[in-house]
Amino acid sequence: MKRFQLELKWAFIFTLMGMLWVLGEKLAGLHDVYIEKHPVYTNFIAIPAIAVFAFALIEIRKKYYGGAITYGQAVKSGLMITLLVTLLSPLSQYLTSTFITPEFFKNAIAVAVRKGYSTQKDAEAYFNLRSYIIQGLIGAPIMGLITTLLVAAFIRKSNTL
Fold first, then answer.
1. How far apart are CA 147 and CA 86, in angstroms?
2. Contact present, 85 and 140 (Cβ < 8 Å)
3. Of 15, 55, 67, 128, most Cβ neighbours within 10 A?
4. Are 96 and 19 in contact (CB under 8 A)?
5. Which residues, at least 6 apart from 72, have a Cβ–Cβ distance to it below 8 Å?
6. Global pTM value
7. For the chain, how far is it from start to end, CA to CA, in angstroms?
8. SS3 sequence, the chain?
9. Helix or strand or coil: residue 48?
């Protein structure tokens, strides 16, 4: 387990960053007053998410691999971070939905129905804790894989000049 201490550290950092992002969305009104704009602005989390993965793999390259890392080594570490983030995602979603923004689902349902995007029943089936936990368990590994493959390509570095 000592081998994956940095990956665990960065999985916690990534999870905390995601929760802080949601808090920022809430404070900006994207979970109530401006909830209609939420589907657009929430996607900007990709910027800090990619940055966290880059910082993680750069630290791993420096501390585990003495400054040089192959693409495969970077992918392995990125996938371990992804696995750990995925495992943390249900807890993160629970904490977010319970303590940071407990009104989000109610507000999202109301907007989806009012705008005619969804029926009440379908909106309630989509905007709830169980659904979001499932979405996280599916989305985290997919996005983590994509991010890992891209970031690993940029941070790989060999010892040869």
1. 14
2. yes
3. 15
4. yes
5. none
6. 0.94
7. 33
8. CHHHHHHHHHHHHHHHHHHHHHHHHHHCCCCCCCHHHHHHHHHHHHHHHHHHHHHHHHHHHHHHHCCCECHHHHHHHHHHHHHHHHHHHHHHHHHHHHHHCCCHHHHHHHHHHHCCCCCHHHHHHHCCHHHHHHHHHHHHHHHHHHHHHHHHHHHCECCCC
9. helix
- Two structure tokens written together for 11: 């999985």
Q: Which two tokens stand for residue 116?
A: 């005619």
Mean pLDDT by 10 residues, the chain (161 residues): 88 98 98 97 98 98 95 97 98 98 98 97 98 98 98 86 52
